[in-house]
Structures are given as structure tokens and as C-alpha cells.
Amino acid sequence: MNKTLKAVCLSVLSGICISGLAGAEIFVSPNGRDSSSGTKNAPLKTIGKAVGKAKPGDTVRLLPGVYSEQVVLKKSGRKGAFITISGTRGKNGEYLSIVQAPGKVLRNWTPAPEIGKNVWKTPLEKRPDCVMKDGAMITYINHMTMALPQRKILPKELLEEYYVSKFGPDCKRLAGLDLLRLPDDVKITHKNLNCKRVNFWEVIDNVLSGWHKGYLYIRLAGDKTIENCRITATYGEGILVENASYITIKNLHIRASRIQVRFEGKASDNIVENCLLMHGGARVHIDKAASNNTVRNNIMTCGFIRNDLFRLRSANDMRGGALYEIFKFIIGTSLSDDKGVANYGKGSKILDNIIVQGLIGIRAFGPDMTVSGNVIHGMSSVGIVTGSQTSGHFFRNLVINCGIPLRIHEYCNPKAKREEYHYNNLFVQGRNAGQQTLVHCYAKMGRIYKASPKNAKTHKIPKLSDHEKTFVYHNTFWGGNDSNAVLILSRYARNFRKVMPFYVVNNIFKDHPWYVTTSHELTGPNLHYLFEVFDKPRRDKKVPELNKIISVKDTENIWNKNGLAGLPDLSLAENSPALSGAVDVSKPFTVNGKTYPALPGFKKGYFKGSTPAFGALQQHEDMAFFNERYRKTTAAIKMLQRFGIKMPVPGIKMK
Q1: What's the Cα-to-Cα distance from 520 to each of 442, 471, 486, 524, rounded to whole Å?
Q2: Long-range contact pairs involving 544-549 (C-beta distance under 8 Å, separation at least 24)
């Protein structure tokens, strides 16, 4: 990894920050002095000192170099006069100003035979937030697992119970110190890996770390030696915007912290744009009390030592699934410990970002959101996941090669006002890889839809509420396996309420043999295509009445054939069976005798012919918008590859 990561951006990012009136410029350089005046010829040394001097309308200009400090912003600009922190970019878009969390390179390593072979330790008083080897983040065991008591006998395989079981008196997890001494040939398995076994150490590049009682431990499996490793431990977050407003952060490479940019407390009306963000548990985190913050035109990646393994698991390669399990249960405690953007705030705008290689692309758990124009590529877990408080619009996103492109999570919470609108998105998988959608419902106390469940005597059950509504329309789902292909809700309809508040219309889905219509408020018309014939489809009789199901042969004629490498052309062919049969959602429309209100996102006359086409693209629309973003993503991945970050070739296998 290049120490300054002068990452050639090749015009990957674009966008102008409209932050208001220009004020003074305050210059900062790693070679400056905080007693200086802050001019270009006499720059300050620290960002914190410069921010302390800044007034509304001023720009803190970071000259090239590495700034090892946590930046805390408590001072606000004002509307029309933002305080701006801007890095320096090179002629070809290089990121020359790097902000990384404070920390140190660890030395004085000694063998730790009391733990196991090839385990090393060094004194470290405080548990770090991030551990890196040669600039790449490595597997770092969570503190609860490290605190468990060791075992005398190690298992021959890392079975599910040894890393998934809940903490507590009956916890069966292996202690972190036991994980560090597992043999080089140990296999990891889980039900999500279809009972297949994957070499544990290969997935994490033969490096594992953990902190315990004043020591940081490193295990180097195989033939690795500590003498050739540069191990760095860092603390804190990158840039923390604490209850401040009207601040712009741009043109920076921010790395090596637990969270790269955090909007904390009542931070509002701030912008982070045109940055390269990597490492930690989240690139951008927006707190619940924060509001109206914008995240746009950034490149985000986990920066893990085996970044190339964030991918769909397949019958021949389960390593992506194994990496997901490791991030969820060994690095995390039981929650997915990696997000590009984690949003819980109100009115957030997440626009035109490139999010590549990680666990979750966007955790969209806030109200009144706008999520648009993003490319989310190579998430082992989920592309976009929504939660119990989510409301807003999700449109024109390109989600590629993610385990679950769209996950509707934490349903059945009547206290929440939840209205999600998903439209004009492309969700692209391998032909038989990954799912297309997944719905998850809670059945815990206080989160049950049925009015009188069996356990009503022992639980306080709130009254039935229809605050939660999800609208999925005019999207194209290409590829995926046969699991949860069409927002399967029948299971939840049986358990929670007769009809779930899902409105699904005008989409192109891969067909599902157990699809039923009675579990949705609205479930058609949609177009269902097939890559292969189902032996015994179990659809209810209304599915073909409300939806258009086409044959394997006709599937080949839906789309045009001129896609880019790794991205199919999902514009509609001249005689496509998807060109007609959908309903006009720009005005009130009627399906099966019931009338529904117009849906947002479409102006009158958005289609040609007598009826709209199914899917994200109408007859007159091409792939130009999505192709442009895909090319930028390809350039971003190649840029990261050139500087030592392991990244796979972008896109999917289309056959």
C-alpha cells in the first residue's frame, strides 16, 4: 500500500459544493506550526487549530500530506456561508491530503507460546479501534469474545456454535485467544455456507488480531513472519461533526478510524463529498438526532486485507459467505460489522456514491431519506437495507453482485411511521447467485401485528396499525437464485396479519415457484421471467391472472444484447414482452377492481404506447445513466487495485 495513497481518480468523481459565499482561506500542512498565521506560506500544523480559527464562509485548505489526528467540529457555519474543510487534489484527481486516526506503529513484538504457535504480542495499554497490516485492515476479534475463558482442547473444525452462540452463561463460543491458536488447516462452516467447509485462515489472509489485558496479540498463520509486517493500531474516529451545522468536508482521503465521518448529536445541513473513505465499521455514520445531511460523490470501501472476497457465495466458492460470518460474529458480536453509510438521521440525502466491497452498502434506517444514483458493488451481505423507522425515496440506484440487493428489515413495528418508495432501480446478480429481495419481520414483545396472538396474556400487544407501507415499482431485478425472488410474504402473512402492507407493481422479477398474491396489498401486474423451467410451481391461481409470466425462450428476448463487460444491457428490446401490460402509476390506477393513488417519481406521459413497460427502463430509455456510473465504478476499482488494495474485476458473470 502506498503510504500516501496518491490514488489516481481518473475523473471518477464529479460535483460542485454549493456552500455559499467565499471567505478567508486558512492553510494547514503537516510541516507547519500552530503558532503560524495560517497563510499558504506560513501554514498551521493541525486541522483542529485551523478549524478553531475558521468563521462562517471560511475554507480550511489542507496541503498535501498525512494528518494523524481526530478532527472534532463543534463550530457551525451558517446558511449561505459554510465552513469548508478541503483537501488538495493532484492533476489527475489524486488524493494528496490524508486524514487518519491517531495511533502508532507497533514494535517490540515477542513470541507468545503461552497462547500458541506463531502468536506474537506487544504491550498496548488501551484496546485500539482499528488494527492494520501494511495499510490494510485486518481481522480484529471483538472484545467480548476476547474476554471468554480459554479451552484446553480445540475443535477440529470451526463449527457454527463456536462463533455464533449468544454471550452469557451458556455461551459455547471459542475464546478469542483460542481462535488465535487454531491450526493452519482448520475449516469454518455454517448453514449459510450450505454445510461446505472453507479454510478459515485463507479468508483472512492468515492474519488475526485481538487485544486482551494490556497486550495486542497477532497470529500469523502459514509462513508469515512478524519481522516483515508493519502493524498499526489507531484510536477514535476520523472527522466528528458534533452538533454543528453548515460544514462541508471534501476532497479528502479519510482512513484508519472506526468511523471515517460521523454526524453526531444534532448535526444538521452538512455535506461530505468527493472523498475517498475506507476502513473501520462504517465510512459515514449519521446519528438519529442528526438531520438534513448530504453524502454525495464519494468512493467508499472497507479496505480489508482480503477485500477481493466480499462477493456472493456460490456452489464453487463459499469464501464470500465465510467472510460475512467472520465480520458478523468474530469481528462483530452478532451484528454485521461493516457499512458504507449507516444512516439513522432525518432528511439525509445519499447521492451518487460508489460503494464497493464490504458487508452492507447503505443501512437506510432514517426517516425522510433520499437515496439515489448510488452504485453499490460487491457486498457480501446487503446492498440496501431498510429498518423500522425508514421512510423516503430510493431510486435510480445500481446494485450489483450483493448477497441480497434489497432487504426490507424489521417489519411489524406498529409504532413506526414507515413509508418506503423503491423505483427505477437496477438490481443485478449472477444468473443463479444471491437473492433478489428479502423481507424480515419481528415477532417480539411489542412488535406483533396480530390482534390476539397465543401469547397475548403474557405480552403487551399494541393495536393493529397501518403506518408501515412499502412500495416497490418499476424496478428491474436481473439474475439471482430462486430464494425470495419476488418479495415473498406468505410466511409473514400467516404469522402476523392476513395481508402485509406491500405494494408491488410494474417490476421485472425472476419468477418464484411458491409465489402467492394474497399476502400483498398489491402484487401486480409484474413481469416474471425464467432462466429455467420449474418442475412443480406452487403459485396460487391469481398469480398468472395479475402478473405476466413468460417462458424461458421469451426471457432471452426481454432485453437488448449490447451490455458492457460485467453489466447486462437491461434496456428493452424492440419486440420485448415487457413493453406492454404495466399500469400507469403517474395517476390513480386500478388493479383487480381496486383503485390505488398515484405513486411518486413519474410524470404524466412517462411511457410510449397505450400502457407503460415493465421494469426500470421504458421503451424510449437506454442504459446511459447506469452505464456512466458503472464505468466510474470500474475506474474506481482499478484505481484502488493499483495502490495495493485487493479488488475483484467489477461486474458479474452473465452466463
Answers
A1: 18, 11, 11, 9
A2: 545/592, 546/517, 546/591, 546/592, 547/517, 547/523, 548/577, 548/581, 548/614, 549/511
Task: Tell the burial category of 463 from Cβ atoms under 10 Å away from its Cβ (0-12, 13-18, 19+).
Answer: exposed
pLDDT digits (tens, 9 = 90+) for 159-191: 999 999 999 988 999 999 999 999 999 999 988
Cα 29 from Cα 449, distance rounded (Å): 58
Q: What would the pLDDT profile of 237-296 be if each residue is shown by its tens digit?
A: 999 999 999 999 999 999 999 999 999 999 999 999 999 999 999 999 999 999 999 999
Instruction: Give the Cα separation of 304 and 8 in Å (integer).
Output: 20
Instruction: Look at the block and give the residue holding cell 479501534.
Output: 129
- HEC string of 303-319? CECCHHHCCCCECCECH
Residue 253: closest CA among 283, 293, 286, 285 = 283
Mind giving me the DSSP string for 541-566?
Answer: TTHHHHSEE--HHHHTTSB-S-PBTT
Residue of 649 and 320 predicted with greater confidence: 320
Question: Cell numbers at residue 438, please?
Answer: 428479502
CA 120, 122, 127 angle in degrees (round to 5)?
A: 110
- What is the tally of helices (H) and strands (E) in the chain? 10, 47
The alpha carbon of 329 is separated from its chain's Cα centroid by a whole number of angstroms, namely 17
Res 413: pLDDT: 64
Q: How far apart are CA 195 and CA 190, in angstroms?
A: 6
**Number of C-alpha atoms within 13 angstroms, CB side, residue 618?**
15
How far is the C-alpha of 97 from the C-alpha of 4, rounded, in Å?
A: 8
Element at 404 (helix H, strand E): strand 404-411
User: In the prediction, which pLDDT does 42 show?
Assistant: 97
